[in-house]
């Protein structure tokens, strides 16, 4: 038997005021108090201060519980030791049932002295609940709070009195109450420990998500639910953000891969649905695999090396490469990888974003082909030609090799279109394209430069002899006619060749040299080949100097007009003037158009020159109109290059308006060969001039081939006999001239003879019905003032 357990049960008696009335020996031994020292004293002498409060509550409850009560208090025992004590109180009743005291049985437990851990364990619960980080509470079976901490008051925004009168379920969202009530009932009924999430509703209506945990504890004969609550607002927000991000990962059209770095190897940990859709692999098929398992063998090795280097350096990277889908189909993948660091700054994962750009790549390739290739023949177009030629020149510079540029212009291609139709012309172009490609190497380029013009780039030519053999194969390919609708169409071409570095240092110089060589031989024979020479280069440079000089002439106002009278045979009166261009050259004197007009036409300077001529001619017509000669029109020669410019007729109308001229004051003189070159344009121009009211004059009638049906459709006001036809009158050419005059009249057009220089010419033309003439026989071209005086002199006196 130890000193902590008395030899027999400790029992003493008290009256109804709690005064000790009887005391046995075990009590004297336990408390070290003999009977004479305790009898007549209050029982609270035996208790610690906290135990006295418990006794007071238990004594009061005794009157309400005739079966007795059980109290746990701290007792002052022998040797100054404090022990846990369990007091079992049994009421003492009189015969009539009136309580006159109670019997108290004492059972002692642990020594309240003990170790540090034991002393800490004896700390009252009420002393520590307010220090807990969350809410703490004790709930009785009725669901009311009997104990709580200040955090519960803060969260609920209720005062202690309000909490004491509040049922726990009143703090819960209405829809959650049934589940919480069921959980509480389970705790009280079975003593299970449980945890669940609820939303507290504070006095102000604020909802606070809480994680609650609780269990049943028995205290002084009663069962209570002791629990704690933790505010999980931050966790809820984090979970919501995570769910949002997860939904975003699932919803995105880009494939997402998360790979873990494992000893310099990447292992797939996550893929989203877009990855499954793009690759055809389900998530379970790829988890744990290395991300490069889809690589297309032998493709994009540089890009994959770039990826590996970036991962080794723990850096991000973006590449475009080709992978294989599960079904073996090749697809283009725009891949961007980003490293993910842990809390120590170490890269542990990589996030890869996959974009399927297959459709874009195919569309880009298709568009690139359309941009760089001729739609009819499939050959390289002008854009790709310049790129390939520049590349070939660059490589030739490095390797000291030759580059041949071959320009091919089909002979009489317009005649093929006119004779066999445009469908036949397209067939000829396609066949020529195939033959040209078959005559060169894969490293060479065949391009369609324009309508019937082709350019070949023969790269890396080892010698001139090698180039000659290749060009000869090209020439031979044109010897075979093209079959179309059971007919054979002969195809000829003029070929010009230039060589790098002899004939030019740039792509533009080489094409110009080949073009010049081709034109140099055009018309000298079918299928001729001409190589560029130094003489041609000199001619080119001379033409370039003329072009620059003409532009300077425009700036310096060196171009001027003379006016040649057009005279009627009927009354020998001036019926109009033809504006003739002259150039007052600072070194060579006054030049006629034959000295510079061809170069102006070739270089395009003819367009601004023609605009200057129209301005001066309109100014002269306005001068005549102001002098009273409004019925005398001025004729202006316009080249094909001028009237084929967009908006030509609109600009002409604007000039007439600015000079306040009626349309009949001006007449346009157009060469028949230029009109026939593009019949649709000629018809459109003639119609626009008729609408505007400006007369059309067809020049050089009889100098070459002429489509009379087309001439009739133009409905010109007059035709002008070519100067060669007039000059031939002195050499027996009267029949041709007479026929042309008759044709003009039959087409309801006036006939004008040009370059009349002799009396016999004049007599023949007059006797055969020619309407008007002009030339040196009557007058040389005149300055504007002299031309006006001529009109004034023919007025009647």
UniProtKB/TrEMBL annotation:
SUPFAM superfamilies assigned: EAL domain-like, Nucleotide cyclase, PYP-like sensor domain (PAS domain)
Any Pfam family the entry gives: PAS_9
Domain PAS, first and last residues per copy: 11-49, 121-191, 241-289
Domain of life from the UniProt record: Bacteria
Domain EAL: 543-795
PAC domain span: 194-244, 317-369
The protein's name: EAL domain-containing protein
Lineage, top ranks: Bacteria, Pseudomonadati, Pseudomonadota, Betaproteobacteria, Burkholderiales
